[in-house]
């Protein structure tokens, strides 16, 4: 008896559970298997599309890179006038950065540097920080159907 089957039997003796066969989606991540080529792919296309729609970026012009060349962001950049503060209060900056972090951690390591950059300014972001977040969204807009692939040296049965 294989280790997976033994684990399933042990878990079912403790918890009420059903074996529903192979997983296709887990926490918004689509699992794609190509047994013949021994490939396992992870995609967040549906999640990314939902996030792009939530932040009204789904019709944006796609960008090739998540960070503008020469971009400098700093703590000295913060809303200074009441009008700027009010405008930034209406932007869900931390939510946007959190959504990008989830995509980055699961399937999009290509945006890691950019997300790390914008995540530093969640306590008091300025419009320049928000523009940087929107550029990451625009990068995802052009590559929302990317799949992170793993080559599995042996079969994954």
Q: Quick one: biggest sheet?
A: 4 strands, antiparallel
Strand content: 5-15%
Question: What is the N-to-C succession of helices and strands?
Answer: HEEEHHHHHE
Stretches where pLDDT is under 50 for at least 5 consecutive residues are none
Count of helical regions:
6
In total, the number of strands is: 4
- Work out the radius of gyration: 20 Å
Strand order of the largest sheet: 1-2-3-4
The share of residues in helices is 40-55%
**Shape designation:** elongated
Helix vs. strand class: alpha+beta
Give the termini separation. 13 Å
Number of domains: 2
Estimate the mean pLDDT confidence. Answer: 87
Quick structural overview:
The chain is α+β, with helices and mostly antiparallel strands and 157 residues long.
How would you describe the overall organization of this protein?
With 157 residues, the protein is α+β, with helices and mostly antiparallel strands. The protein has two domains: 3-42 and 147-151, no CATH class; 45-141, no CATH class. Helix content is 43%, strand content 11%. It contains six helices and four strands. It has helices spanning 3-14, 45-54, 82-89, 93-106, 112-119, 127-141, and strands spanning 25-26, 29-34, 39-43, 147-151. The chain has a four-stranded antiparallel sheet with strand order 1-2-3-4. α4 (93-106) runs antiparallel to α5 (112-119) and α4 runs parallel beside α6. The longest helix is centred in the C-terminal third of the chain and has 15 residues, at 127-141. The radius of gyration is 20 Å and the shape is elongated. It starts with a helix and ends in a 6-residue tail after the last strand.
